[in-house]
From TrEMBL:
Belongs to the acyl-CoA dehydrogenase family. The keyword Oxidoreductase applies. Residues 236-385 form the Acyl-CoA dehydrogenase/oxidase C-terminal domain. Residues 6-125 form the Acyl-CoA dehydrogenase/oxidase N-terminal domain. InterPro entries: Acyl-CoA_Oxase/DH_mid-dom (IPR006091), Acyl-CoA_Oxase/DH_mid-dom_sf (IPR046373), AcylCo_DH-like_C (IPR036250), AcylCo_DH/oxidase_C (IPR009075), AcylCoA_DH/ox_N (IPR013786), AcylCoA_DH/ox_N_sf (IPR037069), AcylCoA_DH/oxidase_NM_dom_sf (IPR009100), Mycobact_Acyl-CoA_DH (IPR052161). The keyword GTP-binding does not apply. It holds the Pfam family Acyl-CoA_dh_M. Residues 130-223 form the Acyl-CoA oxidase/dehydrogenase middle domain. This is Acyl-CoA dehydrogenase. Its cofactor is FAD.
């Protein structure tokens, strides 16, 4: 990709920067820096109001085609938007899952009726989404999904349990991978359903994490319902579509995620200056490597986005997940080393953590959720590099 900005790109950057400068003021001035990993509970109503303010000015879903409510921004312009958003210290987004995961999936695989029904409320931030993938016995092994759905006259009836569902308590809808073909196993017989969360039969139970917050939830479906037409693709296409959604998550969405990452890194660097830790040559080297890693992450995300510009992403998108998860975990460890001994003491009773302690604890989960590092390495080895599956290697041994 051409890294030299065109006159159109420079004009776009100026437009984004000017709008953020003028609008992150007044009633939204206090929203700067709010939210992020391990802090999704923070000022949620204020962040939702900010994002709806963005929507009214046409600054949500900037990469979507104009016919679906977006700006039709190029890959380069999407990068510019996310960079300027980070530089403005704007709040963490609340519509991330709808805008970056479900929306692109519906654009790629949905019907015209589904696009007309579900895309406009995402653009306007009127409906929030969560992701119904993981289960107690189907985390990284997503093909082991046991949540079931039966098609009846009134629509789909869903029973089962999902876990680690981010922001389920704030969401209006959930895209749910479930087994719709009785007796099917593994990748076969799965379907991708769009399920309303505000109904009898959906029970949401927050999970208290190491950080003391509860972004993640258990979700129980007990004869929950959704319309017959709320299936993306055909029955049995669930695995293919679920993998495409993960690919979108590891492409465009990674740039939005890096908004928080860059802000966190800048904060750790400032902390190191303030405490004098930056004078330690080993810590200074690690800070430099962290900056380099973030730039590599950005360039890889751009490469992934360029590859999916004309269609659904492929298994190469697993590289993005492996890169950002490992980088963010390492940043949490680096923050604690910069803090030194003071990082072992909570800020207050009973369990009042500072930002760096919360970063360290929450980022431990990054290499597990949305596909563990081990699973990502297997996908890259087998489906990108063409290496033999581990089971075949084992069978060949005497």
């Amino acid at each position: 990709m051409n890294q030299n900005e065109t006159p159109a790109d420079r004009a776009f950057r100026a437009e984004v920067r000017d709008w953020l400068e003028h609008h992150l003021s007044g009633e939204f001035a206090h929203a700067r820096g709010l939210g992020g990993p391990g802090r999704e509970h923070e000022a949620f109503a204020e962040r939702l109001a900010w994002e709806r303010h963005m929507a009214a000015a046409g600054w949500t879903c900037v990469g979507w085609p104009e016919e679906y409510g977006g700006r039709g921004a190029t890959v380069e312009q999407q990068v510019i938007f996310n960079e300027e958003y980070a530089l403005a210290d704007a709040p963490a987004r609340v519509g991330h899952i709808g805008e970056n995961l479900l929306g692109p999936t519906i654009i790629a695989f949905g019907t015209d009726e589904q696009r007309a029904r579900f895309l406009p409320p995402i653009v306007a931030v009127e409906e929030l989404w969560c992701q119904g993938y993981s289960e107690p016995n189907a985390g990284s092994d997503l093909a082991n999904v046991q949540t079931r759905a039966i098609l009846e006259d009134a629509g789909w009836r869903i029973n089962g349990q999902k876990v680690w569902t981010s922001l389920a308590m704030e969401s209006d809808w959930c895209f749910v991978v479930c087994r719709t073909e009785p007796g099917s196993v593994r990748h076969n017989g799965l379907s991708y359903l769009l399920v309303p969360m505000k109904q009898t039969g959906v029970d949401i139970r927050p999970i208290v994490q190491l950080t003391g917050t509860s972004e993640f939830n258990e979700v129980f479906f007990d004869n929950a319902r959704t319309d017959a037409g709320n299936i993306v693709g055909a029955p049995g296409d669930g695995w293919k579509i679920a993998m495409a959604t993960l690919g979108f998550e590891r492409g465009v969405a990674t740039l939005g995620q890096q908004v928080g990452f860059r802000r966190e890194l800048e904060g750790v660097i400032e902390l190191a200056r303030r405490t004098g830790a930056i004078d330690d040559p080993l810590l200074r080297d690690r800070l430099t490597r962290a900056w380099m890693g973030l730039e590599i992450m950005r360039l890889n995300a751009m490469r992934t986005m360029a590859g999916i510009a004309s269609g659904a992403p492929g298994p190469e998108s697993s590289i993005s997940k492996l890169v950002w998860a490992t980088w963010h975990r390492d940043l949490g460890e680096l923050a604690m080393d910069v803090l030194g001994a003071s990082g072992l003491v909570a800020d207050g009773e009973p369990y009042d953590l500072n930002d760096w302690q919360r970063l360290f604890l929450f980022s431990r989960s990054d290499t597990i959720y949305a596909g563990s590092n081990e699973i990502q390495r297997n996908i890259i080895a087998e489906r990108v590099l063409g290496l033999p599956r581990e089971s075949k290697i084992m069978e060949a041994r005497p």
